[in-house]
Hints:
This protein has 225 residues and is α/β, with parallel strands linked by helices. The chain has a single domain (6-209), classed as P-loop containing nucleotide triphosphate hydrolases (Rossmann fold), CATH 3.40.50.300. The protein is built from nine helices and eight strands. It has helices at residues 17-28, 36-49, 56-65, 97-107, 110-126, 136-140, 154-167, 174-190, 212-223, and strands spanning 6-10, 31-34, 68-71, 82-85, 88-89, 129-133, 146-151, 203-206. The strands form two sheets. The chain has a five-stranded parallel β-sheet, sandwiched between helices. It has a three-stranded antiparallel β-sheet with strand order 3-4-5, with helices on one face. Strand 4 and strand 5 form a beta hairpin. Helix 7 (154-167) crosses helix 8. The chain is globular, with a radius of gyration of 17 Å. The relative contact order is 0.22. Bound molecules: 2'-deoxycytidine-5'-monophosphate (DC). 2'-deoxycytidine-5'-monophosphate (DC) is lined by residues 13, 35-36, 39-40, 103-104, 107, 133-136, 184, 188.
Amino acid sequence: MKQPNLIAIDGPAASGKSTVAEILANELNYMFFDTGVMYRAVTLIALNQISDLDMEHEVVAIADSIEIDVRKPSKGDGRKYDVWVNGKDITWEIRQPAVDANVSKVSAYAGVRTAMTSQQRRIGMKSNVVMVGRDIGTVVLPEADLKVYLDASAEERAKRRHAEIISRGDEADYEKILESMIRRDKIDSTRAVAPLKPADDAVIIHSDHLCVAEVVHKIKDLFAT
Ligand code: DC
């Protein structure tokens, strides 16, 4: 395969998609775009503005009007990028447990997905890009010339997420993380619109026993002559 211009990387929460995609994008000098931040931003604003996230119509109205700006990182505090909404830096706020707990519900709303998918397609068609999410290979960029589905067991992913939170100096409970991971996987993969699943033509990589460098290497091998 020749070097692909559009690379889609999908997979469940904490499968290492963003870390791998960022390295790959840097090495290829491509844009890195993590679509999960958009669903997280809508969820954060919805939590701040409306009393009940079951009010689908109100949540979709937020998704339709929100301007999410993803920029180069402005601080060396471990962030891969800045996320701004309405003139406010929300990069870390979108990682808080309340967002983790509600983002699957918000991202299952068809109207929210329509709004986010069209923004993501516009970004994806503009340049060489490594785009990360749940439905990039199946819905957002079905024309991507390389599709990877990065998987790992729930236990391994919970272990990684736990270590990541601890390394930021925050407190974390492994059992709670595992429970929330399994719950999110279930909602993400059983929703009616754009469920989490590998595209028919995706290359599936299991990363339980692979380090980040090995996963990057495996992906690059797919398009080395
Ligand atoms: O990758 P993440 O954990 O930041 O994603 C947050 C949530 O957003 C995840 O539970 C599912 C949803 N999501 C989605 O439905 N489609 C995408 N393309 C990206 C994320």
